[in-house]
Design brief:
heterodimer; A: alpha/beta; Quinone Oxidoreductase, Chain A, domain 1; Rossmann fold; 7-stranded mixed sheet; 18 strands; about 30% helix; B: mainly alpha; 2 domains; about 60% helix; elongated
Chain lengths: ~400, ~250
């Protein structure tokens, strides 16, 4: 089959690799109909995620049709149309039973690597380094889906791939960011990053009843989409204004009730602080550039919530712990437990509350994946979300 | 009850002696580098150019000893480096005695002083070596929580754990909050050489036992060992399917 493989920094290639096979009894093989390039795939592309190997099949957002089932999968059938969450999880360990599928205790065969780096391990993820298990990803013609009986979400035929594909990651992740932020009707919410996940955080905050939603980014086309499609009431271009001052002005000096960091480790900024973080990251003294996170903490209202869904990989510098502690902020974060949100969000799509396909900017053939990565990393042609069809 | 308390170090006096020897190195080093001629006369050696240069080099060496001791005052190695220095000093004095232009009385005094310091160095080195050995734990404990009742886990353990029980002491106890059973495996810690060789050959006993414990958890909870596209291979392998077939 054809698959998009990582070969090094800024080097992905569509290679011919063997087709996947059933390895465990609860596996399924899915013939992929749609897959995407995620913003977090750019961290792999830019060489910031450790434990990658040349030849790794990447991609973790995909859906398709079941073509083969393991002997212990009884609730699915050949031909079922399914969306697959990016977390791989068993459904029976303590964390899975508590709804923490991103922290499954059984699905990451390389848990010991993450334990050394992070204390405890996450679940396995598709196509996202060897510290998350070394699973082949979904930017391919076929994918093996472990624990398919609990993971796969059957989707109705009247919804298009474009409407349900993002249930695999970015829609639940954006919603999770808003959920962690404990948004209530009347709240003011600020969202750093108006990429696809940020757009869904904004849309979710709107669905949860936030009264004012402020989108922060540097690309006018992303801010425009946030205001026109996702539901932002205000926009801030951080290259034009001081974010902290603008947020104070927009909130009567209080600061937002909830701040969502949908940016993560490769945040941009300006001035000496950005140069400092960039230099330290390049020298590998600091793994992440936490510019958005620092701003979110400094901006948040006293007693407010800072929700972090942007991906971080390791250690950060100059963390404003004093502001967090003395002003009584709550910091919540995590890789999204996608399965928890898939069914309720599918119902919202069916009800017409939201059509997630609004974030799609480009559709390409899988064989054009390298071109798609190059476009996406440079934000060329106003790229927002690139969907690949095998 | 599990105890994970810090072991008493018991090396306070030896640590103080070690630091004292460090300060002795500083004093001697500064004197040798700043006033080699005066020091040469003090120990009964003619302060010619060659002797002054040698004493300056010895002074630099003493400063290096001091840096090593102050950086790691509880480690024996920096103190043992002083013993090596004492041997060099004694060799120098023995070589200098062959000259006719020496003050024998003062040289004998210098040799006695160096021998006295050597006794202190050896005492400090062996004491630190001994306390260092005591600090090293003899066993390593690793644990997992298996989301099944204790009785089921202990019964299944016999079926699926293979030779893991023979590697160490296994204990089971009910996890709080109805979260199943906590399983602990305590294995003997291999010696330093064996541990280093294991890591080099990807055959680390601790890591292997830890991996086996996880597999037991998978066998009891999931019913089989969970594989990824790379974990089915030995060592690192690209995360891509390896079945040699095309659909």
């Amino acid at each position: 089959m054809l698959a998009n493989c990582w070969h090094g920094k800024k080097d992905v290639r569509v290679d011919r690799v063997p087709d996947p096979a059933i390895l465990n009894s609860r596996d399924a093989i899915v013939k992929i109909t749609s897959t995407t390039i995620c913003g977090s795939d750019l961290h792999l592309y830019n060489g910031f995620i450790p434990t990658m190997e040349k030849g790794d099949v990447i991609g973790h957002e995909f859906m398709g049709e079941i073509v083969e089932l393991g002997k212990n999968v009884t609730n699915l059938a050949i031909g079922d149309r399914v969306v697959i969450p990016f977390n791989i999880f068993c459904g029976v360990c303590n964390n899975c039973q508590a709804g923490l599928s991103a922290a499954c205790e059984n699905s990451n065969p390389n848990a010991y690597i993450q334990e050394k780096m992070m204390g405890h391990a996450t679940s396995g993820f598709y196509g996202y380094s060897h510290m998350t298990g070394g699973f082949a990803g979904g930017q391919a013609e076929y994918a093996r889906v472990p624990f398919a009986d609990v993971a796969a979400l059957k989707v109705p035929d009247h919804l298009t791939d474009e409407q349900v594909l993002f249930l695999s990651d970015i829609f639940p992740t954006g919603y999770f960011g808003a959920d962690l932020a404990e948004i209530k009707p009347g709240h003011v919410v600020a969202v750093w990053g108006a990429g696809p996940v940020g757009q869904f955080s904004i849309a979710s905050a709107r669905m949860m009843g936030a009264e004012r939603i402020i989108a922060i980014d540097r690309f006018p086309y992303r801010l425009r989409m946030a205001a026109e499609r996702a539901g932002a009431t205000d926009i801030i271009n951080y290259e034009e204004v001081n974010v902290l001052e603008a947020l104070k002005e927009l909130t009567g000096g209080r600061g937002p009730d909830a701040c969502i960091d949908a940016v993560g480790m490769e945040a941009h900024g300006h001035g000496a602080q950005f140069a400092y973080d960039r230099a330290k990251q390049m020298a590998r003294i600091e793994l992440d550039r936490p510019i958005a996170l620092r701003e979110a903490i400094m901006s948040c209202k006293n007693g407010g919530v800072v929700s972090v869904i942007g991906v971080y990989g390791g250690f950060i510098d100059k963390f404003p712990m004093g502001a967090l502690m003395n002003r009584g902020l709550t910091l919540r974060s995590g890789q999204c437990h996608v399965k928890r949100y898939m069914q309720p969000l599918l119902e919202r799509i069916e009800r017409g509350d939201i059509d997630p396909s609004f974030v799609i900017s480009h559709t390409m053939n899988l064989s054009d994946a390298p071109k798609g990565y190059d476009m996406f990393v440079h934000k060329a042609d106003e790229s927002m979300k690139i969907v690949l069809h095998p | 009850m599990d105890t994970h308390q810090t072991r008493e170090r018991g090396d306070g006096k030896v640590g103080t002696l070690s630091k004292g020897l460090g300060w002795l190195s500083v004093g001697l080093g500064v004197a040798e580098m700043a006033a080699p001629a005066a020091l040469a006369r003090l120990i009964g050696v003619q302060p010619d150019r060659r002797t002054r240069t040698t004493l300056r080099l010895f002074g630099a060496r003493e400063i290096a000893h001091a840096i090593g001791i102050f950086a790691k005052p509880r480690q024996p190695m920096p103190v043992w480096s002083r013993v090596l220095g004492d041997a060099i000093d004694l060799s120098f004095l023995a070589w200098a005695m062959k000259s006719k232009r020496t003050n024998t009385e003062r040289m004998v005094g210098a040799v006695v002083a160096v021998l006295g310091v050597t006794v202190l160095d050896v005492f400090a080195g062996t004491s630190l070596q001994r306390t260092g050995r005591v600090q090293r734990p003899h066993t390593k404990k690793m644990s997992v929580t298996i989301n099944r009742p204790l009785q089921e886990v202990s019964q299944r353990w016999r079926e699926v754990a293979g030779d893991l029980s023979s590697k160490g002491q296994v204990t089971f106890r009910t996890a709080p909050g109805g979260r199943g059973t906590e399983v602990s495996l305590e294995i003997p810690t291999p010696g330093r050489l064996k541990m280093a060789a294991g890591r080099l050959l990807h055959n680390d006993a601790e890591q292997m036992a830890d991996g086996d414990l996880r597999k037991v958890k998978q066998l009891i909870e999931v019913g089989e060992i969970v594989h990824s596209d790379s974990s089915i291979h030995r060592g690192m392998h690209a995360a891509q399917p390896s079945a040699r077939k095309e659909r």
